[in-house]
Amino acid sequence: MRRPVQPPQPSSAHEQPLYRQLYLRLRESILTGSLRPGQRLASSRVLASQMAVARNTVLQAYLQLEVEGYITAERGSGHYVSPLLPGVGGSAARKTAPAQTAANSLGSVRNTFDFVPESLRRPIPPVPFRINLPELDQFPIETWARLQGAVLREARRSAGIVALLGEADAQGDLSLRSAIADHVSIARGVRCSADAVIITAGAQHAMDMLLRVLTQPGDTVGLEDPCFPGALSAARAAACRIVPVPVDAQGADLDSIQTPPHDMRVLLLCPSKQFPLGVTMSLPRRLALVDWARRSAAWIIEDDYDSEYRFDGKPIPSLQGLDGGRQVIYVGTFSKVLFPSLRMGFIVSPPSLVEPLAAARAISGRHGSTLEQRVLARFIDDGHFARHVRRMKALYRDRQAVLLDACRQTLGERLDIERADSGLQTMGWLPPGSDDREVARAARSFGVEVAPLSRFCLQTNRPPGLVIGYGGFTAEQIRAAAHQLARATGTVHG
Amino acid sequence: MRRPVQPPQPSSAHEQPLYRQLYLRLRESILTGSLRPGQRLASSRVLASQMAVARNTVLQAYLQLEVEGYITAERGSGHYVSPLLPGVGGSAARKTAPAQTAANSLGSVRNTFDFVPESLRRPIPPVPFRINLPELDQFPIETWARLQGAVLREARRSAGIVALLGEADAQGDLSLRSAIADHVSIARGVRCSADAVIITAGAQHAMDMLLRVLTQPGDTVGLEDPCFPGALSAARAAACRIVPVPVDAQGADLDSIQTPPHDMRVLLLCPSKQFPLGVTMSLPRRLALVDWARRSAAWIIEDDYDSEYRFDGKPIPSLQGLDGGRQVIYVGTFSKVLFPSLRMGFIVSPPSLVEPLAAARAISGRHGSTLEQRVLARFIDDGHFARHVRRMKALYRDRQAVLLDACRQTLGERLDIERADSGLQTMGWLPPGSDDREVARAARSFGVEVAPLSRFCLQTNRPPGLVIGYGGFTAEQIRAAAHQLARATGTVHG
After folding, report:
1. Which of A343, B13, B167, B256 could cross-link to A123 by cystine, CB 3.0-4.6 Å?
2. Domain topology for B1-102
3. Given this structure, which CATH class describes domain B169-368?
4. pLDDT at position B159
């Protein structure tokens, strides 16, 4: 590999790969303001010849900066310093430029968390085809209310008020941890006992806790490309270096990345149903990844966000079970199976991580509400959970059928919609050359929420597509929204 | 100031104060294993002459290492590398020694969060005189259950099920934010509207979120000395440099520290009732601190953990109100006023920090349970909260009276117990020369929980004392426990 002839600023990081040195310099220039927001960067060809490096090296540095939000790529016109810039790099950026962030007087506070997308902060309107929204009107709320009363009355009868209302174990209430361990052992093939379960305030909280415990700033974290924005936000908050891992028809493909995979400390995956593509990871790929994790002493976080509802046949067993729970950490959530505002999820952890995770839980909220944990435990133990899942599975399968039918009738060639094996949403592909963000904007003006695939892409370009949720909507709503979506695409293509 | 004649390892940090350079070198030696756990450090006198620096410089470096948990001081025998060591420095430590922390195979995982004390992870038994425990048997649990039912029924009637069960605003439910804004404006003189309130999962979560948003690794955070272990843990998790601020009869005394106060980015205070000493900060001190924060563009976090129950006269208005909510961020919690397992607290934020805090909330749990937020809002709005506070205030005042009487009768000279103006606990001073940890251990073997003051001290030595909680116990329990405590002190002194 050629080295730069005259390193402009001899870097202390000269042992690092060339692209990384270049990346660090460019980032420094952006953070110190030498490169201003909106400014156009030199083309990769010009910079490569100027620095006497391969053009690929420059492109790799640009991609890293793009993934981390420092620069944006405008197709055909080049790379620009991100106009929104400050704070995009999270604490990594803050570390480099304290002077810029210290100014907190006079209201001029820099939002060091502005990498968290609006969609995580404010709810997206619950209109069709909003993704990740379960059916809520059919949730057995009377049963829930009855169990709340029962848990309160029992505590009073058994003089257990202090245990119910007082401080509790950061790891979570034993009743819920046991119920979860039983459930995921059977339903998901997870290797698990109650001792290994840590209750969290949902999957997002689990990701955040795990990355705080497992990584240090600058560590490499692999994310599926495309991926859920919450995973990206958690990695940015932990100031990690993010390596996008392309997804093909078999799932995440670690062999396709240039970074030496042994540098990767944590890899986040959705093997059961990739978000948002919906791919189920193949068994050979699963075996290869487990093997890689063991050889590299890397952690895999398995985000099993949407696996309860598999329409045909038995659920795919978890990656954690395949690994025997050594390097794979399992994350589950009740947000989609029950209801999102419950804010209850869990981690199934290897024994060595239980104490660190309980500690991370202790400082980020101490523990969950004991009352709600016990109500959920009863809901599972008494069979309401299994019954609800069974009912909803049938409902979602039917709703998807309505969606497929309505889209094919109404949109025809303008949307190639896929049949999902499971879950609350599916992919619809737009004609080549469409701009999926533009279609999503147009749809919104017709009262329809669809998520453009490109919103979730890190660096891999994909054909234009829409992620379309059907879980939370009636057949009538789905048909009406398909009609509106057809009108919206008409305005874009017309 | 003299400089070392031959800096043994020329440090890139040579622009930093001398004690800081020394601190960094020693920390490096500890983290790389050159200094082993349990190893005795050179005496400050020897090291000072060897390094050609003032002895005070060495002592300052040792103090910093001690505060951060890298070394321990054994009175009379010198300083030792902490035997429990790994991870004590939080991510600051991890940054320096990646090789040590990367080993995650074979179960040999280093607990990078082991600075979080056991008391935050597992509940302390709810026996007398456990601190921070409110009366729970008299919590109006029927009212709470009734409001739960009412909120569910109303949502169903008004077709608001999706709003109740679906994803919600990371900042918190507007009903609760409004109720809190009204309450703290009136009761605590806080400058506040619902827009400025961010709902958290308790005060600990609020501290964690605030330090993640306001600081970067290495930033200086001031903590009262002594202080609540949760505040220390949050500062360690943020990898901040911790500067202990001594507390005198007027409250935290910023003038007494050697660190230039303009380096301090955040200062955590409990002005209403210092934890655990119980001091209420004087008005001159308050004015000086607000002035300092404005001049230094520093943030003050006001932890108002225990202020609802002021026994005599009107509550002391908040520091936030005095400042007009410019540099002072107010943190409140319902853990002690209502019940700990509710896990509900809040931040009253300057406008500029609302979005960053909502983003930090979004990645650390998205938002609180909407049902519980609305129940709490109704509990406040319908007057149950005010009624409960009024009843509990009378109860706690009486319980403290019983405690003072019982201790004076039973323990006499062996415990000089103070009368607290407010809250759930008070200080009892042991005879000079006692070891408060030893007394606490003895008490535990007699079934009594007391917290030794030295557990909360960072670097200031204080006379031996016990923090004694009376809030959660009946008069009978208090008298019996005082008797047991007397027996326990007898075994120690006898």
Report:
1. B167
2. Arc Repressor Mutant, subunit A (1.10.10)
3. alpha beta
4. 77
